[in-house]
Each structure stands twice: as C-alpha cells, then as structure tokens.
Design brief:
The protein is mostly helical. 77% of the residues lie in helices and 0% in strands. The protein has helices at residues 8-29, 32-52, 63-92, 95-100, 106-134, 143-170, 174-179, 181-186, 202-210, 212-225, 232-259. Belongs to the ABC-2 integral membrane protein family.
Length: 260
C-alpha cells in the first residue's frame, strides 16, 4: 500500500495545526489569561458608561453604543501582549530552537502563535460584547453588517498579532516584551473612541482624525448602528491591511534573522 506524499502546502497546514493545538492547550490550562485580557476593557466600559457617560455628549447615540467599538479595539491591543509573552517564553526556553531543528515547516512555528492569538482574542471580544449587551448596548445591524465588523476585527487582530511577534522574538526581558503594547492601548484615547473629535484642540483633533483608530472605530460604530459607512470603511481597511502586510514582512524578516 502506497501513500501520497504531502505537498509543501499541506505539510505547512498540518504542522501549523499541530502547533496551534499545542498553544491552545496552554491557553485552556490557564483560562485566567483570557479573563484577564477581557477584565481591563470591561472595567473601562463600566467606568466610562456609568461614571463619565452622563457628562459626555455624543449626539443621539447612547454612550454604551458609542463607546463599544473603541473598547473592542482596546481588547485586541490588550490581548496581543499575551501573544508576545507566549512567544518570548518559547524563545527564551529554547522551544523555538528545538522546533526549528525538527522537520517541520518553518512558518508553522509563528503561525501557531498567531492563530492562537486570533482564537483567544475572539473569545475576549465575545465576552466584552456580552457585557455591553447586559449594559444596554443595542444594534440595528443586519447579518452582513455583523460579518463586516467581524472581518474588520479579524484583520485588525492579525495585524497587531504579527506586530507582537517582533518583540516576542527580540525582547530580552519580560518587561520588554509586555511594554510594547502600552502605546497601542493608549492610542484609542487620542481618537473618536471615547469622545467626538470635534471638541478637541486643533493639533490633537488633526491627529485624532488622521490616525487609524478613528476610521476603524467610526466604521464599526456606523455598522452597528445600521448607518452608511461611506469612505471610512475603505480607509479603515487600508490601515488594517497595510499594517498587516508591513507587520508580517517585518516579523518574518526578524524570524529569519534570529534563525541565523
């Protein structure tokens, strides 16, 4: 009986699936990782809606409806810090070096971590949405709009995850690998995520209106509300896809360089 040899593509898919299962098992053994990732965004959601929400005017929208898109992006930015940490742990522990010495697809080592990040972040995002629903969030979006929101969040998660791969491969300390995510978490505060940009001072308003978070947040907000998204959709996709392409290229270049 003969077996059909595997193609390089099927070989890579199989190896990635095996390493994805390994990483997911680690996450399942430590579910507090996902819970911790979701706790900070949920705490911010509660704080801004119930403490500051009454003092912030966002037009006809309820503040929880206005706020949720920005909190979803913060959830992803918080979650990818754990991706960088898991990769750093494998690198510093010699696991990556051992895997690279085995007959497996070289890209599978990174893709296993990246796909684990996507799965873990989707769970965290679902938890945040459930809390928002309990707080009164309501959406007039149809199925296609929800799928569009999911697609944007997936591309955004992939882009930030590949960005997280770089410090995961190069950091020398735990503080170094976790610190890179702080600017990403802070960036939504200088956008339309929490308040309309119209009330911001000139230079701050210009920055807020021309940075990626604002276009992504405005697109998701309009999709949730069932409103036309206009050019914001294409600007948001351009930012997400552009960041994904650049981050993936830099991460793979860093991986090849560190591989020696």
């Amino acid at each position: 009986m003969t077996t059909t040899p595997r193609t390089p593509a099927s070989h890579a898919v199989h190896d990635t699936t095996v390493l994805l299962g390994r990483s997911l098992r680690h996450v399942l053994r430590s579910p507090d990782t996902i819970i911790t990732t979701a706790v900070t965004p949920i705490a911010m959601l509660l704080l801004f809606v119930y403490v500051f929400g009454g003092a912030i005017s966002v037009g006809t929208d309820r503040y929880v409806d206005y706020l949720l898109p920005g909190i979803l992006l913060i959830t992803v930015a918080s979650g990818i810090a754990y991706t960088a940490f898991r990769l750093f742990t494998d690198v510093s522990g010699g696991i990556v070096e051992r895997l690279r010495s085995m007959p497996i697809a070289r890209s599978a080592v990174l893709w296993g971590h990246v796909l684990t990040s996507v799965v873990a972040n989707l769970v965290s995002l679902a938890l945040v949405v459930l809390v928002a629903l309990a707080m009164g969030f309501r959406s007039g979006a149809g199925v296609l709009a929800w799928l569009a929101v999911l697609g944007i969040l997936l591309v955004f998660t992939l882009a930030l995850t590949w960005l997280a791969v770089i410090p995961g491969l190069t950091a020398k300390t735990v503080d170094g690998v976790s610190g890179f995510s702080y600017p990403l978490v802070f960036l939504p505060f200088l956008s339309s995520a929490f308040v309309p940009t119209a009330g911001m001072p000139g230079p701050v308003r210009w920055f807020a209106e021309h940075q990626p978070v604002t276009s992504i947040v405005d697109t998701i907000r309009n999709l949730f509300a069932g409103r036309p998204v206009g050019a914001d959709l294409w600007v948001a996709l351009a930012w997400c896809v552009g960041l994904l392409v650049v981050a993936h290229a830099l991460a793979m270049r860093t991986y090849r360089r560190t591989a020696g």
